[in-house]
Amino acid sequence: MPVTGKIEYVPRPLAHLAENVYSFPIMNTRGVSAACIFAAATLSYGQSPTAVEWSKPFPPYKIAGNLYYVGSEQLASYLVVTPQGNILINSDFEQTVPVIRASVEKLGFRFSDIKILLGSHAHGDHMEGDALVKELTGARVMAMEQDVPALRKMTPGGKPHPIDRILHDGDEVTLGGTTLVAHLTPGHTKGCTTWTMKVQDGGKTYNVVIIGSLNVNPGFVLVGNKDYPRIAADYEHSFEVLRALPCDIFLGAHGNYYGMTAKYAKLRKGAANPFIDPAGYRAYIDDREQAFRKELDAQKRKANPSN
After folding, report:
1. Does the model's pTM come out above 0.90?
2. Which domain does 49 fall in, by range?
3. How far apart are CA 65 and CA 97, in angstroms?
4. Which of 51, 109, 156, 275 has the fewest CB within 10 Å, making it most exposed?
5. pLDDT at position 32, please?
6. What is the pLDDT of residues 17-41, one digit of tens each?
7. Burial of 30 (0-12, 13-18, 19+ CB in 10 A)
C-alpha cells in the first residue's frame, strides 16, 4: 500500500502469529509427491482470514542486481539468485507458499532451485511456510538462535518446524558468490533478524538492508514483561544497530515498511530505481523509534500513575 505522510504498519493478531499451533491432524507426506503437498497447502483448512487476505498475489519484479521481489501484497519475500542455486527470504504463511512459487516461476526461475531459506522473525506471517518450502525444494532452513523456541511451536498441520542451521548475530550466509549477513535486531521478537547484502546493478554496488521489524504491535508489553524482561532495551539496541548500517536499497518484512506499492508503480513507469532510498530508510527508523518511545512512555505512566 502506498505510504503517505507517516510510515504506516499493519497490526498483527499476536497470539495467532507468534504461536501458530494448529489443531488439525498431522499430514503424512510419506510417498506423496511434492506437487500433491503443494496443492494441499492451497486448501482452506483452518486458514485464518488474515492468512487469506495477506496472501493475495502481487506482480513479481526485479529490485536490483540478483535480488527479486516474490512476495504477496502484504507479505514481503525476496529471491536472491546465484549460479549455485537461490536463496529465499521469508516463506510467509503456509497459505502464501503457492503465491511465492508462482512469482518465482513467472520470473523464469525454478522453485526447486531454492537451496537456502531464511526468515525475518518468528511470526507465522513470515516463517509459517518453512516446512512446506523445505518439502518442495529441500532447502536448508536457517534461523536466529533467539527465535528458535518460538519457531519450534510453529507447526502447521502438525509438521515439525525445520531448522538446519542456527544463526547468531553477524553470521554470514553465502551461496554462489553472494553473501548475506544476519543482524540480530530484537524487540519485535527475541530473534528478529535484519538481513544485509550487496548487489551490483548498472555498474554500481548498492548496500541492501531488509529490516526484520521495528514495530510495537498492539498488545506488546514494554514495561514489566515477565516473559521478555529486556524487550524495551532490545528495541533500543535495534534502533542503534540499524542506524549504523549503510543503506542504499531499503526493504523490509512487509512492503508497506518502504512504500512498496507506490515505488513499484514508479518502477513500472520507467523512473529511476525508486528502491534506492537511503532517506526513506532513515525516515522509517525515526518514525518507528518515535512510535516506540510514545508507547513506552504511555506504559510507564500506566505502571506508575503517581509519577
Report:
1. no
2. 14-303
3. 24
4. 109
5. 39
6. 333 322 222 233 333 344 433 333 4
7. exposed
- Distance (Å, rounded) from C-alpha 85 to C-alpha 271? 30
Grid coordinates belonging to 34: 511434492
Measuring CA to CA, how many Å separate 130 from each of 231, 260, 278, 291?
26, 24, 31, 31
Specify the DSSP element, H or E, that contains 179: strand 178-184
* Set of cell numbers at residue 266: 514508479
First CA to last CA distance, the chain? 40
All three cell numbers of 251, joined, read 526493504
Q: Considering the domain boundaries, does residue 9 fall inside one?
A: no
7 in any annotated domain: no
- What are the grid coordinates assigned to 120, written together? 525475518
Q: Which one-letter amino acid corresponds to residue 15?
A: A
Which amino acid, 204? K
Number of domains in the chain: 1
Phi, psi for 280 (deg, rounded to 5): -65, -35
Burial class for 266, CB neighbours closer than 10 Å (0-12, 13-18, 19+): middle
- What's the pLDDT tens digit per position in 279-294? 999 999 999 999 999 9
Cα 148–chain centre separation: 15
Query: Which residues 6+ apart lie within 8 Å of 81 measured at CB?
Result: 66, 67, 68, 109
Q: What are phi and psi of 249, to 5 degrees?
A: -105, 115
Cα–Cα nearest to 90, from 58, 129, 52, 53: 129
CATH of the domain at 271: 3.60.15.10
Residue 28's identity, in one-letter code, is N
